[in-house]
Amino acid sequence: MRYRAVIFDLDGVVCYTDEYHYLAWKALADKLGVPFDRAFNDRLRGVSRRESLRLILERYAGPALYEAQQAALAEEKNALYRRYLHQMTPADLPAEVKSTLDALRARGLKLAIGSSSKNAPLILERIGLADFFDAVADGNCIARSKPDPEVFLKAAAMLGEAPESCLVVEDAVSGAHAGHDGGFQVACVGSAARAGAGDYNLESVMDICNVISVQAVTLQPKF
Ligand code: B16
Ligand code: MG
Q1: Cα–Cα distance measured from residue 139 to residue 142, given in angstroms and rounded to the nearest whole number
Q2: 15-47 burial, b if ≥16 CB within 10 A, otherwise e?
Q3: 5-16+91-211 architecture in CATH?
Q4: What is the tens place of the pLDDT at every residue in 94-104?
Q5: Of 73, 90, 99, 107, which sits most exposed with the smallest number of CB within 10 A?
């Protein structure tokens, strides 16, 4: 089947807010005395804020933390993260992402966001894409974050498309698993591409246009 829609992950695909997640978690981990590097940070990509904190606390050697203390730590990380987000402007939308989005739309594809983040509306507003997508499914409208497929299934339903008609674009291994479990084809960039987690493992978001073109050519009806 030819793709009719592309569902984009947000952090680490549409913009580089993944770096702000890293910096904010690193600050919290340093305060707790928990070892934290970029390889460990890759395990936090795509998973929820509370699951990320749970993974960090697995490495915490201090006394057990009550639920209220854990909630306060998650909130502390989020407050630091949001300070970075409030400094973003439309200049933080990478030019190659904007041109790719425009090229895909010009080809008639529906475009959606499928993000685990509860901060997705703020990020989209900061980078000038608040009204751009045909559908936005994010951490505010799901019960289970990636690797559960819920957010992508919700985005596809909002678009009125079946999973087989949609290409998911991800930077997280957890997100690639979510896409596959939901019945989607997955194109990966960044860390997930390096791990070979996608059906397509791309150097750049711009390569999505090639994936779509190959599909279009491959699936031309034969005469
Ligand atoms: P928040 P994505 C995910 O966004 C991030 O990759 C992940 O690091 C983060 O923990 C999760 O959102 C929740 O984010 O704390 O802002 O609600 O990659 O699915 O767009
Ligand atoms: Mg991501």
Answers
A1: 6
A2: bbbbebbbebbbebbeebebebeeebbbbbbbb
A3: 3-Layer(aba) Sandwich (3.40)
A4: 999 999 999 99
A5: 90
**Which two structure tokens, joined as six digits, stand for 20?**
């702000």
One-letter amino acid at 140 equals N
Q: What's the pLDDT score for residue 2?
A: 86
CA of 104 to the centre of ligand 2 (A): 20
Ligand 1 centroid to residue 45 C-alpha, Å: 7
- Domain boundaries of the chain, sorted by first residue: 5-16+91-211, 18-85
Q: Which residues are catalytic?
A: 9, 11
**Chain segment 129-169, per-residue pLDDT in tens:** 999 999 999 999 999 999 999 999 999 999 999 999 999 99
Which residue among 7, 8, 9, 11 has the greatest number of ligand 1 atoms within 8 angstroms of its CB, and so is best to mutate?
11
Whether 10 is in the pocket of ligand 1, judged by its Cβ within 6 Å, is yes
Is the model's pTM score more than 0.70?
Answer: yes
> Which two structure tokens, joined as six digits, stand for 171?
């930077």
Out of 1.10.150.240, 3.40.50.1370, 1.10.260.40, 2.30.300.10, the CATH code matching 18-85 is 1.10.150.240
Write the CB contacts of 106 (distance below 8 Å, at least 6 apart in sequence). Answer: none
